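Q: My labmate handed me this sequence with no annotations at all. I'd like to see what the chain might look like in three dimensions before we decide whether it's worth expressing. Could you predict it?
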Amino acid sequence: MTENLEISRRRMLGTVGAAGAAGLALGAASGAGVYAAAAGPSADGTALTSVGSTEAMFHGKHQAGITTPLQARGHLLAFDLAPGAGRKEATALLRRWSATARALMAGKPADGGQDTGIALDAGPSSLTVTFGFGHSFFGRTGLTARRPTELDALPAFSADALDPKRSNGDLWIQIGSDDALVAFHALRALQKDAGDAARVRWQMNGFNRSPGATARPMTARNLMGQVDGTGNPKPSEPDFDRRIFVPDGASGPQAWMAGGSYAVVRRIRMLLDDWEKLPLEKQERVIGRRKSDGAPLTGGSETTELDLNKMGPDGKLVIPDNAHARISAPEQNGGAAMLRRPFSFHDGIAPDGTPDAGLLFICWQADPLKGFVPVQRKLDRGDALSPFLRHEASGLFAVPGGPAEGEYVGQRLLES
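A: Here is what I predict for the chain of 416 residues:
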């Protein structure tokens, strides 16, 4: 056992097997180029499984964790700068955080010789760490003139029951990994790095299905059992970058956001007891898709386009006019699109005996006013799924582009 503990993470990087190759292909297709196979066998001559060996890149045009394939474990945190802390302290903090994220994403111990050893023996496990700035960050650092208008407050929605203590924040971090200990290791290291400069405002923990748990790669399911994410924009689409990322040609005070994106984060509680009382047929009509495979009620497979005009023998629309899939479809919202990349959550049983469970909804877009807001407004006016959801927390964050070699995240803002 002592011998195993002495094996550092950097010596434990293995080769990618068949399942890992599929993950690499998906990562490459995303246009972000975020995945690479970690090289080298472990100290005892055996290779890591594909899950442990997959590595996301810290440096690049975009930050990792946006187009990266869904990971099995996630942590979301918001921090507020400490009283009296300003731009100088924020700059030092982002330097520390970036150094730690760079090392951990490569499967190495945290910098500074203070690694806790939580993730010893593990490879990178697709770890991603993504950083963003909230609306309040700019006033506290004297950078109000560089605050994007896209960070203006989201409108209120009728289904909102938002807890301000679990919403917003100066700084935001998204952690994702295919190994729970690797994810927690990053969480602990970044929390310690904050030191006296910032304090945790809120934290949320999530999960997805583990890679390899299904016979073939497939779209994830949420806690309602529905295939969730079918309608996501695809990186292969010619307008994907325009919809999801701020263009490279951005100029003026917000030029620092070139290659970045805006993340809307919502804690959406699912009223599972009520949902599970519905017969399967009614659940499918609420969604507008078959539960078994995610295919539209109008037929075909999961990826078949919705036939929104198809009528049934009874003379009614096959996909009801208030079905979630219909209302959220881009063609029903002037082409509005966002890249949804959520985690599920379960935080125990509420005092009323119902599960405190649901979706940590995270969506990415070049402009929230053209992505999240119009779709949510439409859903707010008559989505059949709304009675089974409760929006309990919300945040909006500007996520800058990925750092170049030698840069830290946010450098183009903080040193401009």
